[in-house]
Automatic annotation (TrEMBL):
Primary location group: other
Keyword Signal appears in the UniProt entry: yes
Complexes and interactors: The basal body constitutes a major portion of the flagellar organelle and consists of four rings (L,P,S, and M) mounted on a central rod.
Protein name: Flagellar P-ring protein
Keyword Amino-acid biosynthesis in record: no
């Protein structure tokens, strides 16, 4: 194991003091009031599929949008019956980033809504994207990059990934800008992504120290108000550019997160355990059925009888005996001890649940 990996492992287990921890920039801890994106959605048509599109009988809306598109292009299809297999109806979603200007491009995600088998190789026809106010802010079009593959034969079909969903990098062009004059703001609120009173107080102190006067004030655990007018900068943009890179040492609540599906355990360095005793073991019940068929002798009177025959047993696997954990022990030390004993991750999760239920685990316990 290299020295770098060894130090990283020791830091994760909490055996090294957080001397290597570096401060975090304010821009990585907060969201600035007014600096936000907007969700866009559109309903469009994908063409050019290799026989993997919607079945018109099961997706009549595909025929409707295709007829509407051809009518707009000057093709009269009134009364015609469509049965193509190379088109699919899709939803197109995207996020309009803050301060996006007309003419710039954004990525879009395309998802089938009918019974199409794959969007691989398809092309999205010009699709307007609307925001929550019903206005069109972007127009999407381009070749889809699907995230999976599928193959089908006479008697079998195999699918890898999700071929009915894909992306178009830079597939939408912005046509309308969001009306928001950021430079006219006289104050800006900083919203902490993880609310904490200590972190908010440190952000306030860092900003006031940078300006040499009280221009920031903590309102609550999740909000710090920054007075742009009192700061004396040319505009709110200049002020944000000055404070967003200030370093701050954040604080966080003690938290343990476990994923039962994968057996993953993630914990913070501040997690502590009170004095508690732990004992763990497993019982395995085993029942096997081996019925015996008894038949009469040849040419003898009688009937065939099935005689039940069962074997049952109980096996006790070796677990952890009664062990005492002293007060003030960190959870990383407990995990290291359980790992040394060869305890499986799932048994470890059960032990942590029991310690939390006993009131000895002083941290927020999250099970996913």
């Amino acid at each position: 194991m290299t020295l770098r990996r060894l130090l990283l492992t020791l830091c994760i287990l909490g055996w090294l003091a957080p001397a290597f921890a570096s401060p975090v920039r304010i821009k990585d801890l907060v969201d600035f009031d007014g600096v936000r994106g907007n969700d866009l959605i559109g309903y469009g048509l994908v063409v050019g599929l290799n026989g993997t599109g919607d079945g018109i009988r099961n997706a009549p809306f595909t025929e409707e949008i295709m007829s509407s598109l051809l009518e707009r292009l000057g093709v009269n299809v009134t009364g015609e019956q469509f049965r193509p297999k190379n088109v699919a109806a899709v939803f197109v979603t995207a996020e309009l980033p803050p301060f996006a200007r007309a003419g710039s491009t954004i990525d879009v995600t395309v998802s089938a809504i009918g019974d199409a088998k794959s969007l691989l190789g398809g092309t999205l026809v010009m699709t307007p994207l609307n925001a929550a106010d019903g206005q069109v802010y972007a127009v999407a079009q381009g070749t889809i990059i699907a995230g999976g593959a599928s193959a089908e034969g006479e008697g079998a079909r195999v699918v890898q990934g999700v071929p009915t969903s894909g992306v178009i990098p830079s597939g939408a062009r912005i046509e309308r800008e969001v009306d928001f004059d950021f430079s006219s703001l006289s104050e800006v609120r900083l919203a902490l992504r993880t609310p904490d009173f200590t972190t908010a107080a440190r952000i306030e102190a860092a900003i006031n120290e940078a300006y040499g006067r009280p221009v920031a004030r903590m309102l609550d655990a999740g909000t710090v108000r920054f007075d742009v007018a009192r700061a004396g900068d040319a505009s709110a943009a200049h002020a944000i550019g000055r404070i967003e890179n200030l370093p701050v040492d954040p604080q966080r609540r003690a938290r343990v997160v476990v994923d039962q599906r994968s057996g993953t355990i993630v914990m913070g360095e501040d997690v502590r355990i009170s004095r508690v005793a732990v004992s763990q073991g497993n019982l395995t019940l085993r029942i096997e059925e081996a019925p015996l068929v008894v038949q009469p002798d040849p040419f003898a009177a009688g009937e065939t009888v099935v005689v039940p025959r069962s074997e049952a047993g109980i096996e006790e696997q070796q677990g952890i005996g009664l062990a005492e954990v002293p007060a003030g022990t960190s959870l990383s030390e407990v995990i290291a001890g359980l790992n040394a004993l060869g305890v499986s991750p799932r048994d470890m999760i059960d032990i942590l649940k029991s310690i939390k239920a006993a009131g000895a685990l002083h941290a927020e316990f999250i099970v996913q």
